[in-house]
From TrEMBL, chain A:
PROSITE patterns: 4FE4S_FER_1, 4FE4S_FER_2. The lineage of its organism: Bacteria, Bacillati, Actinomycetota, Coriobacteriia, Eggerthellales. Gene3D superfamilies: 3.30.70.20. Keywords: 4Fe-4S, Electron transport, Iron, Iron-sulfur, Metal-binding, Repeat, Transport. Pfam families: Fer4_11. The keyword Acetylation does not apply. This is 4Fe-4S dicluster domain-containing protein. It comes from the Bacteria. Residues 84-113 form the 4Fe-4S ferredoxin-type domain. It comes from Adlercreutzia faecimuris. InterPro entries: 4Fe4S_Fe-S-bd, 4Fe4S_Fe_S_CS, ET_IronSulfur_Cluster-Binding.
UniProtKB/TrEMBL annotation, chain B:
It is an enzyme of class 1 (oxidoreductase). This is glutamate synthase (NADPH). Residues 9-38, 40-69 form the 4Fe-4S ferredoxin-type domain. Signal peptide: none annotated. Belongs to the glutamate synthase family. Its EC number is 1.4.1.13. Keywords: Amino-acid biosynthesis, Glutamate biosynthesis, Iron, Iron-sulfur, Metal-binding, Oxidoreductase. The keyword Nucleotidyltransferase does not apply. PANTHER family: ARCHAEAL-TYPE GLUTAMATE SYNTHASE [NADPH] (PTHR43819:SF1). It catalyses: 2 L-glutamate + NADP(+) = L-glutamine + 2-oxoglutarate + NADPH + H(+). It comes from Adlercreutzia faecimuris.
Amino acid sequence: MKRIYAIEAWCIDCKRCEVACKTFHSRSRDTVKAFTVEYPQPQNRVRVEGTRQLSVAVNCRHCAQPKCVEGCISGAMTKNPRTGVVTSDPRKCVGCRTCVSLCPFGAVRIEDVAEKGIAYKCDLCGEVPGEAGEPSCVAACPNRALIYVESEGC
Amino acid sequence: MLDYLLPRYKVLRDRDECVQCGVCERSCANGVHKVDEDLGRVTADHAKCVNCQRCVVMCPTTAIAITRWPQVDAGSGNWTLEAMQDIAKQAQTGAVLLASMGNPKDYPIYWDHLLLNASQVTNPSIDPLREPMETRVFLGSRPGMLKVNEREHVVMTPMPPQIRLDVPLMFSAMSFGSVSLNAQKSLAMAAKELGTYFNTGEGGLHRDLEAYADHAIVQVASGRFGVDPHYLNAGAAIEIKIGQGAKPGIGGHLPGEKINEEVSRTRMIPQGTDAISPAPHHDIYSIEDLRQLIFSLKEATLYRKPVAVKIAAVHNVAAIASGMARAGADIIVVDGFRGGTGAAPKRIRDNVGIPIELALAAVDQRLRDEGIRSTVSLVAAGSVRSSADVVRAIALGADAAYIASAALIALGCHQCQDCSSGRCNWGIATQNPDLTKRLNPEVAAERVVNLVRGWNHEIKEMMGGMGINAIDSLRGNRLMLRGIGLNDKELEILGVKYAGE
């Protein structure tokens, strides 16, 4: 499957990827509306960690044997066996945080967006859960610090 | 103490569009933007803005634009705001005013007064998409006569060393130190891909760029930084830099803070010391001295590399170029007064030198009159802005053109003229690792390659329109040019007829 890779040597901590991610995962797909009027606030799933000296965009690896799926108690976290895309279903998620503690990359986050916390993670910008799209973070990166390339394993 | 300076620019932020994402704050090395959570908006320290436009390009909602500071001048055509600000700055510091990039003053741009020809009826134009079109150029000396063994189909005359350019342009000298290694590497990668050359400038050849040495012109300047036999033999050609269009008669000064470990190793000078290039070469006080250096370099490279000599376009440029050709230069480079620089005294940049168009025409004519034009190649530099400028330069007599500002603009440069501060937000004119990593050479080289490929297509189109199918037939072909809005003297020096003639 194609995966997003972050190259820390070229990451410049601008966080345009975060803005693009948040916009894509909003209802309006409009940056201004996503940041100002939409409720619940849309969440970005990619996160730039670090400082201006050294930073990297942390993103879901869509592991071959994902720990988050293994540990999910409600069946919200699933890996599509055909595409390999790991997604979290907000309707099923109970916010138990097992996935957060199991993820070796810190790529899952719980956000208090409604009454309860819900697990959010990268879905490769698929229009349908489990299908990969054209990741908006990769398109927004000005320095090719995020690349979307074919990789081994599904 | 209160300085009497006004901000130069004002940051306009559309509050309807700004989402306070902070991309601008993180993109600005000058510390202009600040997401102020107390105020619930992004503020700007206008006085720090240099108009590099990084934030404008990076803003995800295009909420930012930069405008001039709205302060009106005193209403005097003489005491303009700029003139008064310069005085205020010098009254504060007592220092020489420093500036960067090319002469920005409103002098005539002769390129824009030269129109190109095209074929109609009496001779056919050529479609470069259907017919072969040659843009390959060889630079170097040429033998006075060519002996060919016609039976064996071999050239008998020994050929002097030459370099082959697949496109009629190269990237002019920008040293590692004045620009970042990523900037130099971007141009090196692009040069290799395009089949042309980049120029190391006077800062030596970084070991990471040795892989691109076949596409490097190694420069020997008055500071002799990074010069040793290995360096001279590594490149495809050697260039002796006598002068630079942006600052004729002036040396260079790279401040100690830019001499980090890598720059120090490449330049072969101690870390943290100022790199000072003297104004003259201390061993060149005459054409005869220049000949000694040219032949020293040829000896050092066993006569395998062409030696170029680069001068700034100044008043007696034609006579000097004639001397250079006679001194043994294989390639003569003339750099006009709009050529860029990483740092120059402002008064020098703005007031010294002459336009490349006039200098080029004068040099070509002089060498032709003296019957030595064919013994050397001639390269024009100093603000070649488009493929049309390249065509004009070649028609005025150049073998090829050097581009640098245009290549940097392809890398992201927005000509803010603040190179000397070392805070280039585009990662070009800086050694700050946070900033240099903003220039990914893979991305940057692609952009430069795109630019030059685009230009080369356009050059072929323009040549085809003229009914010319090889760049050799365009060289010095001033009948392909007509002047517009020029006086008789200008036409005479340029050697072109007026439009309609």
